[in-house]
Structures are given as C-alpha cells and as structure tokens.
Fold this sequence. Notes:
Elements: E1 14-16, E2 23-27, E3 38-39, E4 43-44, H1 47-54
Antiparallel strand pairs: 1-2, 3-4
The chain binds zinc ion (ZN).
Amino acid sequence: MRKTxxxxxxxxxYERCAVCKRETDVPVDLETSRRRFYIEGAGQLCPACYRxxxx
Length: 55
Ligand SMILES: [Zn+2]
C-alpha cells in the first residue's frame, strides 16, 4: 500500500480513474483488496469506465 506524503495527510485524497482521469470516491489509502473497480496492473477505474471495459 502506498503511503501518503506528510504534506498530504491532512486532506483526504481520492484516486483518479486510470482511464478518464476523473476523481473517484476511493480514498488513496484504502487497501486495494477492498476497493471496487480496482484492476490489478491497470489501477483504479471509475464505475463508468469499468463497465465499459469489463461490463
Ligand atoms: Zn473513468
């Protein structure tokens, strides 16, 4: 799991979709095994892109 930088600890940051770069509702420090729409090797996707690629 990636650690957040010291400067970024105050604000909660969210992953961006690996495809469309839009911000998702997945916190960056959430374990990848607990994420939805997370693709091993590709990264975090948003629901729309996930559906388009795998739906
Ligand atoms: Zn997307």
